[in-house]
Design goal:
Layout (H helix, E strand, L loop, with lengths): L5 H20 L9 H11 L3 H19 L5 H18 L5 H26 L8 H39 L6
Helix pairs in contact: 1-2, 1-3, 2-3, 2-4, 2-6, 3-4, 4-5, 5-6
Length: 174
């Protein structure tokens, strides 16, 4: 991976993540959001590992201030942190194939973790056994399509857009 150069490169990365977070606030179909894209992008491009977590998490938190909080937030933020790790994993091989695999992995991870969290915190909605857990995952399947589609679209836009910006402004890379 080409390293992002200096303060200008850092500012460009922060702007990309913050702009993506704005898309969480505007009306959108259920689960069609840039959450995975922000996390993967941060993990892949921020060379400072603390910033790779901090900047996307801060952007997510800022957008959540507008959207609101709910009981499933710990599961959402846990899956988000793990998506940053997936982004870090692909950081040395940012190619369309690795980005698509990272995006699909993030979609599955988000589905599994957040719906497990729903099941854990929804004793009145789902029984606390295997039947209830299965029912929870089955009920979430219709939303999974939008999760995958949103993740692929926003990941393509962030990674592809940043690639094009770097081609136009080579000062951003060493």
């Amino acid at each position: 991976m080409e390293k992002i150069k200096g303060n200008l490169g850092l500012i460009a990365l922060v702007v990309v993540v913050l702009v993506a977070a704005i898309f969480r606030i505007i009306p959108h179909p259920p689960n069609f959001t840039p959450i995975a894209a922000m996390a993967l992008f941060g993990g892949a491009y921020f060379t400072n590992k603390k910033l790779a977590f901090l900047i996307p998490m801060a952007a997510m938190l800022l957008s959540d201030l507008f959207i609101g909080f709910h009981s499933g937030m710990p599961a959402v933020y846990l899956s988000f942190a793990l998506m940053v790790l997936i982004g870090m994993r692909i950081s040395n091989n940012i190619k369309p194939k690795s980005v698509i695999i990272g995006s699909l992995s993030a979609s599955v991870l988000f589905f599994v973790i957040t719906n497990f969290g729903v099941w854990m915190t929804s004793a009145t909605m789902y029984s606390q056994g295997l039947y209830g857990l299965t029912a929870c995952y089955v009920a979430a399947i219709p939303f999974f399509h939008n999760t995958v589609l949103g993740d692929l679209v926003f990941t393509s836009v962030l990674f592809g857009g940043f690639y094009l910006v770097r081609q136009k402004f080579p000062i951003l890379v060493k």
